[in-house]
Automatic annotation (TrEMBL):
Protein name according to UniProt: Cellobiose phosphorylase
Origin organism lineage: Bacteria, Bacillati, Bacillota, Clostridia, Eubacteriales
Glycosyl hydrolase 94 supersandwich domain location: 58-296
Keyword field contains Transferase: yes
InterPro entries xref list: 6-hairpin_glycosidase_sf, 6hp_glycosidase-like_sf, Gal_mutarotase_sf_dom, GH65_N, GH94_catalytic, GH94_Enzymes, Glyco_hydrolase_94_b-supersand
Record has Nuclease as a keyword: no
Length: 900
């Protein structure tokens, strides 16, 4: 980072002049539901959901358009007004002049501190903001004003935080009318807003949320007056950047315990004048937030609005999140280690914010999608798997009996909601993710019996994989599939996985690859519903089928389970051979027969199927898929480069290869053909050469998602309407780039896998180009700017890649295995590289020692020491789970792995 530097080993960083960079924001939130974003000038918003915004909602463009930001003003006697956040018209005008104020931001996990110095006014402000990691629904900030001049200064301090207090829908829809709902009340410490009703998509309802701003001096001193109405605060002709009441230092006339109605509100709070001597300071503590009544804000005043309470909450919050992030790394590149600390945190942010509620993530109304449920669990399995079993079990309740799944996810774990708008949408990749996550869980824990747990199936109007409606179904019947005698049916997790994969296997287009439907992982491929095919994800489903067969072998051989229970209807999908598989019409007929039999309900009859028969059938399907794709989808272009075609468009035409306006290549098909072992080793080498030729661009962070098709391809997807180099159309899309790295590492192409990760990391860490705080963004645009930071599934995949592939620390049926793929240049000056992590509910520090100073490929694990004592292993370097679980769970244990 050119002017952004880490200051410890926990990801804390500093950045000078942060407001010189546009579109930057920082997340501060808690698990009680408070979700805030904050910029270097304290813009951003604060909310608890789509219908409860305390501060006005902001999208990325609002960060420079919106004047409605958090502010703290001081009026200096004899000099005039100065904004501690830099948001005054005069200060903004000086940004590009030689008189710009000195600023720097320092931040860590869930806290943000901005410091501002003004030589002109002879003062400095330091504003620390965070959301406590408690059940309190507040955001706190401490404002410290320091006299850095040689003269005594008399100041008048004013908190000024505009209060929106309504649904995001009302930012334009009935903005004024909803202000008429406001009931504003002043207390001894602040301004409370309790709207009478809510106007949003739920209808006109009685409001139950109280919003407010309360403030005090560092020792709990009360304000003296208030100006809670916006139009009175700014004055005629004024604005939030030029408020007349502050610039003219007008007296605030509203006292505590007064009530006002029907106006836009602001938490404008005036404190008694104070005199600050040179090199002395005065502090104020401000809380904004949500409550069930104004009494909740009284508690905030007592507990938090004093220096002792503030700092205790601040330190407790830092400790809380540090314990949550229980993976850390030590390599030669300390910036990489710190950057990964932020990547470790990103899946936690997505569990809080969902895929919405940060400025770039301005779509949807909160919550997570189906993929998010499973991919966020990848990181959780690596960090803290204790609650994962129940989470996974609940998530399986979203699968339909036709192999598709619910797309509206409720706020509670395991809650899935029928789409009342009857919008049919099937993403063909959805059936593949649950197995990847479940397989990781089983490998990490050894809990193979999880496959035999039972769960219900989701039921709604949508049937036959999104092609038909069940007119017999009504919401009053509930959203669980029933048997013929109207009882809820529960099948094993193994059965759920088979339903997803077997239905997909038969759901093919005219080239006998799996249908694309509404899209696959790439949501931009949404215009090939009728004839589109995803070869890319066909390879993933095939690889998953092979892995399911391997798990069945473990059940059979180690758990002595000879038969498994399955719903009778599945027999339709478990019969067949290559003669049927080779014929598209026959496969479609099998699927139609199955879907018809489970259209409204199922028989409820369970049969016992021999494991050997089931394994043989699944392996046969997997083998057919691999051979079919190898035979038909491996392409070579005019320039002699070869790779896998990944798609067919809505005119049933092959998408990749030589196009009229140049080479057409998409990274996705290469990733999954490598990861699923569909591609041979020689083919992987060819894919790497092609990807380096057509997709690699170091100046924007590495591997683009696709080449430029130079066409608005309306028979394939909306992504081709985007400008090339942005989002799904040719940007470096972190998710797929990191999965490419993961696939390469898995197949032993370690130097190539490292190149993917290192190029992306190095670009993100080059602040002058990426313009983002630490972490991996969703994508990098054509100018090299990181976009949609924080809320991205790529973080989970990067954690998984670094942990299980780069460091090679992974579970093997619950045992701890070591297969390091660390390059020589990654070892530090003492030839060490280490990782701290949680495994089997024990904190471990695993330290690799490269005694021979060898490159990857030349070293192997020679010795293992646990807490100083040698652990003897036979052949493969694996520590048995029971050895790990016998360790004291209250302390950290050191495992040294000697490489020679």
């Amino acid at each position: 980072m050119a002017n952004c530097e880490f200051i410890n080993n926990k990801g804390n960083f500093k950045l000078k002049n942060p407001e010189n960079n546009s579109y930057m924001y920082f997340p501060i939130a808690n698990e009680a539901g408070v979700m805030s974003s904050i910029t270097p000038t304290l813009n951003g918003d604060c909310k608890m959901g789509q219908n409860t915004f305390l501060l006005a909602p902001v999208s990325s463009e609002d960060l420079h358009n919106n004047r409605s930001s958090r502010n703290f003003w001081i009026y200096i006697d004899g000099m005039g007004a100065w904004s501690a956040t830099g948001v005054s018209a005069a200060q903004q005008a000086e940004i590009f002049s030689g008189d710009k104020e000195e600023t720097d931001v320092e931040a860590g996990i869930m806290w943000h501190k901005i410091t501002r110095k003004s030589k002109k006014f002879g003062v400095k402000s330091e504003i620390t903001s965070f959301v406590p990691a408690t059940d309190e629904k507040i955001e706190l900030m401490k404002v410290t004003i320091t006299n850095i001049s040689n003269e005594t200064k008399k100041i008048t301090s004013t908190v000024a935080i505009p209060l929106y207090c309504r649904s995001a829908d009302n930012i334009r829809d009935h903005r004024h009318v909803t202000s008429l709902l406001n009931r504003v009340e002043t207390t001894e410490y602040g301004v409370i807003v309790n709207p009478t009703l809510t106007f949003d998509e739920r209808g006109h309802k009685k409001n139950t949320v109280v919003y407010g701003v309360v403030a005090a001096t560092e020792n709990g001193g009360k304000p003296i007056s208030f100006c809670p109405i916006v139009e009175e605060f700014i004055g005629e002709g004024g604005s939030f950047e030029m408020p007349k009441s502050v610039l003219l230092n007008e007296e605030f006339k509203i006292k505590p315990n007064e009530k006002l109605e029907g106006y836009e509100a602001i938490g404008a709070i005036r404190f008694e004048d104070v005199v600050i001597e040179p090199n002395s300071s005065k502090s104020y503590i401000v809380a904004i937030g949500f409550g069930d009544s104004k009494c909740d804000f009284d508690s905030v005043v007592v507990n938090d609005l004093n220096e002792t309470g503030f700092y205790k909450l601040f330190e407790d919050t830092k400790t809380y999140w540090d314990k949550k992030i229980n993976i850390s790394y030590e390599t030669k590149d300390k910036r990489f280690d710190n950057w990964m600390y932020w990547v470790n945190f990103q899946p936690m942010l997505r569990r809080i914010y969902g895929c919405s509620f940060l400025p770039h993530h301005d779509y949807g109304k909160g919550g997570r999608g189906w993929r998010d449920l499973w991919q966020d669990c990848l990181a959780l399995i690596a960090m803290d798997p204790r609650d994962v079993r129940g989470m996974l079990l609940d998530n399986f309740g979203g699968i339909r009996f036709d192999g598709t799944n619910a797309t509206i996810i409720g706020t509670k774990q395991g809650e899935f909601i029928a789409d009342r708008n009857n919008i049919t949408r099937v993403w063909m990749d959805h059936g593949a993710w649950p197995f990847l996550t479940t397989n990781l869980y089983i490998e990490q824990t050894g809990d193979i019996e999880f496959l035999l747990e039972k769960q219900s199936y989701f039921k709604d109007l949508q049937v036959e994989r999104g092609t038909e409606k069940d007119t017999l179904w009504d919401l009053s019947q509930g959203n669980k599939i029933l048997t013929e005698n109207s009882k809820e049916y529960n099948g094993t997790i193994l059965e759920h996985l088979l339903v997803q994969h077997l239905t997909a296997f038969y759901d093919v287009g005219e080239h006998n690859n799996l249908k694309l439907h509404g899209a696959d992982w790439n949501d931009g491929l949404d215009m090939a519903e009728e004839k589109g095919e995803s070869v890319a994800f066909s390879t993933l489903y095939g690889g998953n089928l092979e892995s399911i067969a391997e798990l069945l072998k473990v059940l059979r051989d180690e758990k002595k389970i000879k038969n498994v229970e399955l719903a009778e209807e599945l027999l339709i999908l478990l019969t067949g051979d290559d003669e049927i598989y080779n014929r598209v019409d026959e496969k479609q007929k099998v699927l139609k027969d199955y879907c018809y039999k489970c259209r409204h309900n199922i028989k409820g009859k369970v049969i016992k199927l021999n494991c050997d028969e089931l394994i043989a059938d699944i392996q046969g399907k997997a083998k057919w898929l691999k051979e079919h794709i190898q035979k038909n989808e491996w392409i070579t272009n005019r320039e002699g480069y070869s790779w896998y075609n990944g798609y067919y468009d809505n005119n049933a035409r092959r998408v990749e290869g030589d196009g009229e306006s140049g080479t057409r290549m998409i990274l996705t098909g290469q990733v999954f053909s490598i990861m699923s072992n569909t591609a041979t080793e020689e083919q992987v080498e060819s894919i790497i050469k092609a990807a380096d030729k057509y997709l690699y661009d170091k100046s924007i962070g590495g591997y683009r998602l696709n080449t430029n098709f130079n066409e608005i391809k309306t028979d394939f997807g909306r992504m081709f309407g985007f400008a090339y180099g942005h989002k799904e159309n040719g940007a470096v899309f972190s998710h797929m780039a990191i999965m490419y790295a993961n696939a390469l590492y898995q197949r032993g192409f370690v130097h190539e896998g490292f190149k993917v990760v290192d190029t992306l990391y190095s670009h993100c860490n080059n602040f002058d180009v990426s313009r983002i705080y630490p972490g991996v963004p969703e994508y990098i645009n054509e100018k090299g700017r990181g976009m949609y930071n924080y809320l991205t599934g790529s973080a989970s995949w990067l954690i998984l890649t670094v942990l299980t592939e780069m460091f090679g620390v992974k579970g093997e049926m619950g045992n701890l295995a070591f297969d390091p793929k660390i390059l020589l240049k990654q070892f530090d000056d003492e030839n060490k590289a280490s990782i701290e992590m949680n495994f089997a509910e024990r904190m471990l520090k695993i330290e690799y020692i490269n005694e021979g100073i060898k490159e990857y490929g030349d070293y192997s694990v020679n010795q293992i020491y646990m807490n100083g004592e040698e652990y003897k292993f036979d052949g493969k370097p694996v520590i048995c789970r029971n050895v790990i679980t016998s360790l004291d769970e209250n302390i950290k244990h050191t495992i040294k792995v000697v490489l020679k």
